Amino acid sequence: MLTRRDFALASIGLAVAATGWRPTHSHANEETVTTTKTKSAFEIAKTPEEWRRILTPEQYHVLREHGTERAGTSPLDKNYKPGTYVCAGCELPLFSSETKFNSGTGWPSFYQPLDNAVGNTIDKSFFMTRTEVHCRRCGGHLGHVFEDGPPPTGLRYCMNGVALKFIPKAAG
After folding, report:
1. Which listed residue (87, 90, 138, 158) is catalytic?
2. Which of 3, 73, 120, 162 has a CA that sits 20 to 30 A from residue 62's CA?
């Protein structure tokens, strides 16, 4: 159950995210890795210059700098066609459209990732502790997972649409 304090902190976080404000330092030093891989052990590793060549500026900001897109700006939020959502950085399949739901938050939300698709780290930015979700293959920041989702998992994987690409299911 959400307390007033949780609601206030979440509101502050959303307000800060909506303004586009970014800290001048990365919160990577504050993260505790909760997966078996560390950021230096991802299968796909590129220099910042290499990432900038293949990603748009907004994708780079979200995937490589742990940014957040403004709520309601991603066309993927309202996309409910059958298919697969893949990482915009390395195209690893991450989520099935079968687990997508309308969370009302303005970001694409899923109740479960595909097997062996994502990893988690502890994110202590913006005066709160959250669970960050990243691509297990390239380490790209995707969003956060919360414990207020629908059955069967009770989880809400709240993803930045710009960090994802949608691959429609083939007809037939």
Report:
1. 158
2. 3
CA distance 89 to 52: 10
The distance in angstroms from the start CA to the end CA of the chain is 44
Angle 136-139-144 (CA atoms, 0-180°, nearest 5)? Answer: 80
Per DSSP (E only), the strands in 18-117 are 32-33, 83-87, 93-96, 100-101, 109-110
Look up 158 and say whether it is catalytic.
yes
Domain 30-168 carries which CATH code?
2.170.150.20
User: Where do the structural domains in the chain lie, given as residue ranges?
Assistant: 30-168
pTM, full prediction: 0.76
pLDDT digit string (tens) for 137-169? 999 999 999 999 999 999 999 999 999 999 999
